[in-house]
Amino acid sequence: MSALLPSVPEKTIERLSEYRRTLIKFHKQGVTHIFSHVIAGIHGITAVQVRRDLMLVGFSSDAKRGYEVAELIDYITDLLYGQSVMNIAIVGMGNLGQAITKYFNSKQLKLKITAAFDVDPAKVGTTIDEIPCYSMDEFEDVLSNNEIAIVILALPAKAATELVVPIINAGIKGVLNFTSAPLNFPQGIVVENYDITTILEKVAYFVKANEENEAN
Fold this sequence. Notes:
Blueprint: H1 10-28, E1 33-34, H2 36-43, H3 47-56, E2 67-68, H4 69-81, E3 86-91, H5 95-105, E4 111-118, E5 127-128, E6 131-135, H6 139-145, E7 148-153, H7 157-161, H8 164-169, E8 174-177, E9 190-193, H9 196-215
Parallel strand pairs: 3-4, 3-7, 4-6, 7-8, 8-9
Antiparallel strand pairs: 1-2, 5-6
């Protein structure tokens, strides 16, 4: 995956997203300031790493009071999303697709799933979780006409490979691929291949390894 910003490593962006969710929880509890070692403890990293991440994007703390929570939330939000809502389309409205839609649209993020696509005639032309579901025949037109920047793929792997060219033609800037087929796009399109099976197998391997170590 290409870095979202040339000067900020991918891992830092991932941690900033995690910090933001933590900060939102604290903010809702009435916490106004927080120290780096508190954030670090929650995320299993060092306070030095937290401070380094935030300094890298230009944010510093008050030595006596720590980071101002609401200000830091806004700062990270603007860094990740900019000032406007980013529209997303999801392809494949099976169990996974619908679960993703419910999750994202309930979080009040500046990421909004605004269109869905499926090949099932029973779904096409309907609204699923308040999202209009379109036919794949309308794919490029709907994406181009609705200022959609990101596509989430939650469909069979074979079908996903057939969408590479339509995605390029529609001017999409980012792809989150939940299929088992790794997809490659030209420079300028950010792609994250998220193979759930591979990730689960990795977890299973380390569980087995830990059990074997404990047994010896």
